[in-house]
Structure formats: structure tokens, C-alpha cells
Design brief:
The chain has 22 helices and 5 strands. By secondary structure, the protein is mainly α. Strands 3-5-4 form a 3-stranded mixed β-sheet, sandwiched between helices. Strands 1-2 form a two-stranded antiparallel sheet. The structure holds zinc ion. The site of zinc ion (ZN) has 4 residues, from helix 13 and helix 14.
Length: 576
């Protein structure tokens, strides 16, 4: 199968890059050399230079994305795997060094202070912190880190079990946790769990190496620990580690009790004495899983109807994606697991990838990724300079765009995917899922705070720190006799390995998305207009400003979480 991205409409012509540019270091280094050597004798020169650099960034990032998309659409094509590996192993380290050279040139420019703040203010701040933490010796460490991440991926991908006459990945096994028959769920859960545990030592070693590398990177850059370093590296200008710790406390105080209430209701409805880990995904009323569509065509048709009811402009975006074949939704052999939206940054168009399996969750995933793609389209229409969008989008707000769509779309499932009763059931599952998301975000984030502020820990200390953290935020399910399973549960969370400290963003975004949902239930028009306004600002404003543009409060503390817990509690009850 060949995926052709060259036929996509090119509505933004190149002003700086040659039309026949090839994605090879020889050609790219000439362009970086030209930018590095260019004379910046006036403010317009500097602005022009920034625009040209942006054009080059958009090109290189799009080329990276095309290779990434290809490698996930067809993991069994060695050419695609190799092309993406060649990018991460050979090209990316060189690009980092070349970009650092440009960063230094920017910092030294005498006209930097005269750039209009409205357009360049936040970008200037981002460059300042990138300059502060960049160390050439870290490039090699980061390359080793990404090799380890690939090793983690390979280890997890190779975890398969033979169940009911078929070889299945652990992800594929998870559908059996929805089986009404308890014996089946338990059998499937234990089988998957045993398989994962068989690799626990290998994964422990990979993680040890990663923690050590990351600690070294932080110390090279003059920080005491990796946590404090990553806050700067991730452009977290608007919150601190202690705000995150406050968020954990607020989750513990307001969301954990709600999560346990939900579990108690579940235990009662299932009619079991003790809730076990394999009882958490099944419908508590003993029903078969919801089945909202037959195939990808049905999923797209239903989603189009849902988005039609939300907003006309957003609906035109969705249709455009479908026409341009920017959706790869159906599960098939050789496709990587999971789902994502990636922006093709030069043509400024989104691409959605997922593995639909006829489940309720697939509808939510598609709408989630649609939220990301609306972000891409709205920034495109706004004509923002590239550095105010694309890869610079703050994830804390990018996920507001997506999670909002995931939640509010549920208001329109009746008559599109479900009857009234099933729509209520889907919305209840979503509300419960969001309560659990808050508690899981706090678990993963709090654990990482511990790991990177105790970099010399032993395996035993790490397992203990995990279990303590897990118990602090968990539901009421019992792990009696499954102590090892609980102690190593963290190894299944890929973020811990591949994108350290990327998780609190979901919690922050969830506060915003629930706020948009509450507004949407009061006044649809008004909520969607401010949603679009905020998305069209891209990365040009701070998080509190983006939240405010969407009509939301920027608050991660107990007051906000107490209110959200109340709203979620009444939603869970209302849909019952
Ligand atoms: Zn997302």
C-alpha cells in the first residue's frame, strides 16, 4: 500500500524553500547555513528571517510526520520503519544542533527587543527557555533515550498470548474485560497479566537506564533534578511542580471519594462481594458492550451527523477530512495500536489514525481526534505564523480542544449512534471514565514526581513508591493475591517510558473540557463560538489567556476540583 501525501492541496505556497527540496541532510544543512549566516540589519530583516525559519520548520516537521504516519499505518513494511528510524537516529540530532545555532543567532540580534509583543511575545519566551536549557552533550543522551523508547515499544508489542485459538496482543485482550461472564473476564485478565509480568525485569532495566539518562541531562543543564528541568523544557510557564502537588491533593480530596462511590455502586449492581481488577470494564447491569456502528463507513457517517448538530463550520472541516482521505480508522493487520491526530504542518491539514473495533470507545476516540483536527483547521484559517501553532501548541490546551469534543458529542448520540437508553449509558460511561481519568492522572504524575526527585532509588523502593501512590488514588478493587500485578502496573503506561511528565496535561485539559461541556449544556451557540475563538489563537497566548478566551477559569486547586466533582457526581446520577 502506498500513501500519497503529495496530492494534498497545497494552499500555502513556499516563499523561501526551493520547490524541489529533498529531505536530506545535504540540502537541509545548506538552508540552515544560509539562515545562520544571513545579515540581520533591521527589524524587517529579523521578521523575514523568522518567517523563513518557520517555513523550514514546517517543512521538516511535516516530513517527519509523514514518515511517522507511514510507519504506524504499516508496521510490517520495513521501508517505512527504516525511513522513520533514519529520521530519529540520523537527521533529528543534526536538526537539533542546527536549530540551536539559529536560537543563538536570534538571541544575539539587536532587534529582538523591538519585535511586536502581540505576535512574538510568547515565542520569545519559548526561545529564551530553550536557550537556557540546551546543552550539545544532551543531544547524544536524547538519541540514546529514543533508542530505549523503541526497545520499550518492541518489548510491549511482542507481548502476545494465545487465547481461544488466536494469538492476541494485550490490547486485543482488553475486549474480554467487557464480557458479562465473570469467569471469562478473570481468565483473560490473568493471562494478559502473566504475560506482562514475564517481562517485568527487562522493563525495569529499560526504565532504570532512562531515569539515569534523564537525570544526567538535567544536571548537564544545571538543574538539581529532571523534574525541574522538564518544567522548563516543556514551556510550563503558567504552573509549577507545587501546583501539580496541589492538584494531586485536590484529586485525592474530591475525586477519589467519588471514584470509590462509583465502584461501590458497581459492586452492588454486579452482585459481587469484592470488586476485582477484571470487574472494572464490564457493564454493571450485565449488558453486552454497546455497539454503535458496523464498519468505518458507518462510523464516519454517524460522526458527520453528530458534528453537523454541533456546528456548521466544524462540520465542513470534518467533511473535508473525509473527502481528502485524511482518516485511517479501521483496524487491520500490520497497523500500530492506538489513535492520534497529527498535523501535516506545511499543507496545514490534519490526519487521523485509529483502530476502530465497533465499540462505544471508538466513537469517543474519533470525536477526540476530531477536536485536535478542528484546532489544526481553525489555526489555518487564522493564518498564524507557524511558530504560533503546530508543534508549539501547548498540550494542556490542545487536549481541551479534543476532550471537549469527546464529551459534548455525547449530547447528540441519540438518533445518530444510539437510542435514548444507550445514549444515556454511553454518557454515563464517559462521565465515570472522566472521574477515573482524574485519579489516574494524579497517580501517574505523582509517581513521576517521586521517581525523578529520587533518581538513585532501588527497584524495591520504586515498587513501594508506586504501590503507595496507586493506593492513594485507586478505587476499591482488591489485589489480594495479585500483589506483583499491582506493583508492576506502571510498566504498562507508555508515557512513563516514552514521554516523561506528559500526563498532567490531560488532567489540566479535563478541567477545561468539563467547563466547556457545562457551558454547552446551558447555551450551545455561545459555548461553541468561544471554543472556536480560543482554538484559533493557536500557541500565541498563555494558558490562562487561552482558557479565558474559551470562557473558562484557570484553576487547578481544590475549589475548582470540588465543583467539578459535584458536576460529575450529578451527571453520573442523572444518566443512571
Ligand atoms: Zn488528544
Amino acid at each position: 500500500m502506498v500513501f500519497d501525501y503529495s496530492s494534498l492541496p497545497r494552499e500555502f505556497s513556499r516563499r523561501y524553500l526551493p520547490q524541489d527540496l529533498k529531505f536530506e541532510w545535504g540540502e537541509l544543512s545548506r538552508l540552515y547555513g544560509e539562515l545562520a549566516g544571513r545579515d540581520l540589519g533591521s527589524l524587517p530583516d529579523l521578521e523575514r528571517w523568522l518567517a523563513d525559519e518557520s517555513e523550514l520548520d514546517a517543512y521538516t516537521y511535516e516530513q517527519r510526520t509523514i514518515r511517522y504516519i507511514n510507519s504506524t499505518r504499516q508496521t510490517d513494511n520495513p521501508d517505512f520503519t527504516l525511513a522513520y528510524e533514519r529520521y530519529t537516529e540520523e537527521l533529528e540530532p543534526r536538526l537539533k544542533v542546527a536549530k540551536f545555532g539559529l536560537l543563538q543567532k536570534y538571541a544575539a540580534s539587536q532587534f529582538r527587543g523591538s519585535l511586536p509583543r502581540d505576535t512574538y511575545g510568547l515565542e520569545d519566551l519559548r526561545r529564551k527557555s530553550a536557550l537556557l536549557i540546551f546543552r550539545p552533550e544532551n543531544v547524544e543522551l536524547e538519541r540514546t533515550e529514543s533508542t530505549l523508547a523503541q526497545k520499550y515499544q518492541r518489548t510491549v508489542a511482542a507481548m502476545t498470548v494465545n487465547y481461544r485459538g488466536q494469538e492476541r496482543t494485550l490490547q486485543q485482550m482488553s475486549k474480554f474485560y467487557e464480557e458479562p461472564e465473570r469467569r471469562v473476564r478473570e481468565e483473560a485478565w490473568r493471562m494478559a497479566d502473566q504475560r506482562a509480568l514475564a517481562d517485568r525485569s527487562a522493563l525495569d532495566v529499560i526504565y532504570d537506564q532512562m531515569v539515569k539518562l534523564r537525570d544526567e541531562e538535567a544536571r548537564n543543564a544545571g538543574f538539581d533534578n529532571f523534574r525541574d528541568y522538564i518544567f522548563v523544557k516543556k514551556d510550563r510557564f503558567d504552573y509549577t511542580p507545587s501546583d501539580c502537588i496541589g492538584f494531586h491533593r485536590a484529586v485525592e480530596e474530591y475525586l477519589v471519594p467519588l471514584s470509590r462511590e462509583i465502584d461501590m455502586e458497581r459492586r452492588e449492581r454486579l452482585g459481587v462481594d469484592t470488586l476485582r481488577p477484571w470487574d472494572l470494564r464490564v457493564d454493571p447491569g450485565g449488558l453486552q458492550p454497546l455497539s454503535p456502528f458496523e464498519d468505518a463507513t458507518g462510523l464516519v457517517r454517524g460522526a458527520a451527523k453528530v458534528v453537523d448538530q454541533i456546528d456548521r463550520k466544524l462540520s465542513s472541516y470534518f467533511r473535508r477530512m473525509s473527502e481528502l482521505e485524511l482518516l485511517d480508522l479501521e483496524s487491520r493487520k500490520g497497523k500500530a495500536p492506538g489513535g492520534y491526530q497529527e498535523e501535516l504542518t506545511e499543507v496545514k491539514l490534519p490526519f487521523i489514525f485509529m483502530n476502530a473495533a465497533k465499540r462505544d470507545n471508538d466513537v469517543r476516540t474519533l470525536l477526540h481526534e476530531c477536536g485536535h483536527s478542528f484546532h489544526t483547521f481553525l489555526m489555518r484559517d487564522e493564518g498564524l505564523p507557524y511558530f504560533n501553532g503546530g508543534a508549539n501548541l501547548p498540550l494542556e490546551f490542545a487536549e481541551v480542544a479534543s476532550i471537549s469534543m469527546e464529551i459534548i458529542s455525547g449530547e447528540h448520540y441519540e438518533g445518530t449512534f444510539y437510542d435514548a437508553q444507550d445514549a444515556r449509558r454511553s454518557n454515563k460511561e464517559e462521565a465515570v471514565g472522566n472521574v477515573k481519568l482524574f485519579t489516574w492522572v494524579a497517580t501517574i504524575d505523582a509517581f513521576q514526581h517521586w521517581v525523578y526527585t529520587h533518581p538513585d532509588h532501588s527497584h524495591e523502593e520504586r515498587a513501594k513508591a508506586w504501590v503507595d501512590t496507586f493506593n492513594r488514588f485507586s478505587g476499591i478493587e482488591s489485589y489480594e493475591g495479585l500483589e506483583s500485578s499491582r506493583a508492576y502496573r506502571w510498566q504498562r503506561q507508555l508515557h512513563l517510558f516514552e514521554v516523561p511528565f506528559y500526563y498532567i496535561e490531560y488532567g489540566i485539559a479535563l478541567t477545561g473540557a468539563l467547563g466547556i461541556w457545562a457551558r454547552y449544556r446551558r447555551d450551545r451557540r455561545e459555548a461553541i463560538e468561544s471554543y472556536k475563538d480560543a482554538l484559533s489563537l493557536g500557541a500565541s497566548r498563555s494558558l490562562p489567556e487561552l482558557f479565558s478566551a474559551a470562557g473558562l477559569e484557570w484553576d487547578l486547586g481544590p475549589r475548582a476540583l470540588n465543583r467539578l466533582a459535584d458536576e460529575l457526581r450529578s451527571a453520573v446520577r442523572g444518566y443512571s
